[in-house]
Amino acid sequence: MRCLCSFLIFLCVCANGYSQNSSIQVELVDNTVGVSDGGCNSCGVSVSNDDGLNQIFANYNLFGYDYMEPDTYLGENGAGYFYKIYCSSNDVESLLTDLSAYNTVIKYAAEETVYGVSVNVLNLNLIDSNTGVQTGTTTEGLIVTNDAGLNQIFVDFNVRKYIEYPEPNTNQYTLVCDCDAQLLKNELNDYSSVISFVSDVNYMMLLSVDENTKTNINIHPNPFKDKISIEINKPIESIEIYDILGKSINKSSSVSETENYSSTLKSGVYLLKITTKDGNTMTKKLIKS
């Protein structure tokens, strides 16, 4: 009996060890090179439109390669750069090394540490619209602002994109860095004389970037003062609003009802979960100022 129990424990440990998978987020240099072609490595089909990247994938136990759409404003033509790789947990370190070395196609790669949160993108809000604005870039391509303290943080964390949100009077920016976004977030939160608020950037997964099947959603303004406007290219099954603690506070099958309800919200951060009739689910972060 003791031998049988030991054998069963061994089987469980092995099964758990082999079932552990990880995910790596990558940012492409060019949003037309290295993009998913909808194939899968395990069935012998290329998973991107770049032969060099496919060769790297072929060397590892890859389960998928999907497009991610960050839940923030990335400027005009800012979409199509971010992807997620599903792989064996045993492959992560070596795969990251190979991806980082392939820098003609891969701009940045890191293991996902918080599910559903971007590894190198953040949002921040300035206290004063005149302090912390971009004035240029360094010779290395890092962002320079009119605030010395913020510049030092940007150099320390390799911040290379600083995109102002298009809605007026929001003082909101999106940062993209070659860094651990969670460490940068802590540093920015400590710089409270210039920065009022820092938040993670969530993403939604799209299994295909085919324009005929992709779910496109636009929520504006965000942050908002009165109410939001929702534009989506597919029929809605449900729209649900959650507070910051994850409690559902409103659910509807109507876009207009949700838009009107948003005007009753108090200032704060919320999550908007949208389910389309074809089964896709997306989560967007809302900020009411």
Q: Could you describe the 3D structure shown?
A:
The chain is an alpha+beta fold. The termini are far apart. It has helices at 2-19, 51-58, 92-101, 148-156, 181-190, 255-262, and strands at 21-28, 62-70, 82-88, 106-111, 117-126, 134-137, 143-145, 159-164, 172-177, 195-206, 217-220, 229-232, 236-242, 248-252, 268-276, 281-288. Residues 1-19 and 207-213 have low confidence and may be disordered. InterPro entries: Secre_tail.
What's this model, at a glance?
The chain has 289 residues and is α+β, with helices and mostly antiparallel strands. The chain has helices at 2-19, 51-58, 92-101, 148-156, 181-190, 255-262; strands spanning 21-28, 62-70, 82-88, 106-111, 117-126, 134-137, 143-145, 159-164, 172-177, 195-206, 217-220, 229-232, 236-242, 248-252, 268-276, 281-288.
List the helices and strands and how they pair.
Layout (H helix, E strand, L loop, with lengths): L1 H18 L1 E8 L22 H8 L3 E9 L11 E7 L3 H10 L4 E6 L5 E10 L7 E4 L5 E3 L2 H9 L2 E6 L7 E6 L3 H10 L4 E12 L10 E4 L8 E4 L3 E7 L5 E5 L2 H8 L5 E9 L4 E8 L1
Antiparallel strand pairs: 1-3, 1-4, 2-3, 2-10, 5-9, 5-10, 6-7, 8-9, 11-12, 13-14, 13-15, 15-16
Summary keywords:
T9SS type A sorting domain-containing protein; 16 strands; 6 helices; 37% strand; signal; eight-stranded antiparallel β-sheet; globular
What is the helix fraction of residues, given as a range? 10-25%
**Number of E-type strands:** 16
In the sheet with the most strands, the strands line up as: 4-1-3-2-10-5-9-8
Tell me, rounded to a whole number, the average pLDDT. 84
How far apart are the termini?
A: 65 Å
Query: Approximately what portion of the residues adopt beta-strand conformation?
Result: 35-45%
Main sheet: strands, sense, barrel: 8 strands, antiparallel
- Provide the gyration radius in Å: 21 Å
Shape: globular
- Write the H/E string, N to C: HEHEEHEEEEHEEHEEEEEHEE
Please, how many helices?
Answer: 6
What structural category do the secondary elements indicate?
alpha+beta
The low-pLDDT segments are 1-19, 207-213
